[in-house]
Specification:
heterodimer, A: mainly alpha, Cytochrome Bc1 Complex, Chain D, domain 2, 0% strand, B: 109 residues, mainly alpha, two-stranded antiparallel sheet, 6 helices, 2 strands
């Protein structure tokens, strides 16, 4: 009986674990604290770029931002400026920054409603 | 005599003024070209297969950045296979056109 309960509990845990893993990574508040350097070029919310060749970050999907930062860090994506900044970030920093900029309101959007514009 | 100098000078001035405009993106042509992009970028939360992440939002993005991104894919500096194939099929002018169109899209309020 106890055995069955244990197995049932373990099964539930196994089911719950993927759900937890899918939860958004990163801490928005911590990301805001770490975003001061980024703000110099991308603006305080990531929506005001200093130069049109810099991307708007506000409202971008967090996992895309995280991928971009990891690719800059690894050298997979080459950009002299971003390599310097991303290289100094830990995995946690990357998740926090991505969560922060992804949670901001901005101009960018997907193209799903493009015919209505 | 003065006319002979002024006329070519004026023509040259007109030609120079027209030249930078030719290098700029034409949003109307970009609109015609961008249709393929909606296959991935036009679906809310659409995910790249591997590695798994949602494909970026590009409507309303900065023009210069879009040009830089597409050009980097075209040259192979950015390595996403699908984006590389797409970007390779576009001329520099077409990339500028697409960037002009996408950057002109405002968020629906």
């Amino acid at each position: 009986m106890t055995m069955i309960r244990t197995i049932a509990a373990l099964s539930l845990l196994a089911l719950a674990t993927p759900a937890l893993a899918a939860a958004p990574k990163g801490n928005i508040a911590a990301g805001q604290e770490k975003s001061k350097t980024c703000a110099a070029c991308h603006g305080p919310t990531g929506n005001e770029s200093l130069d049109p060749s810099y991307p708007k970050l506000a409202g971008q999907y967090p996992e895309y931002l995280a991928k971009a930062l990891r690719d800059y860090k690894s050298g997979e994506r080459q950009n002299a400026v971003m390599a310097g900044f991303a290289g100094a970030l830990s995995d946690e920093d990357i998740d926090d920054l991505s969560a922060y900029f992804g949670a901001q309101e901005g101009d960018i959007h997907d193209l799903s409603k493009v015919d209505e514009r | 005599m003065i006319k002979r100098i002024l006329l070519p000078a004026a023509s040259l001035a007109l030609a120079l003024a027209a030249f930078p405009a030719a290098a700029k993106g034409d949003p109307e042509n970009g609109k015609a070209l961008f249709y393929t992009c909606t296959g991935c970028h036009g679906i809310v939360d659409y995910k790249n297969a591997y590695p798994t992440y949602r494909v970026p939002k590009i409507g309303g993005q900065n023009e210069g950045y879009l040009i830089a991104a597409l050009t980097a894919y075209k040259k192979g500096e950015r390595k996403h296979p699908t984006m590389r194939a797409q970007a390779e099929s576009f001329s520099d002018q077409e990339i500028a056109d697409i960037a002009a169109y996408l950057s002109s899209l405002k968020t629906a309020k």
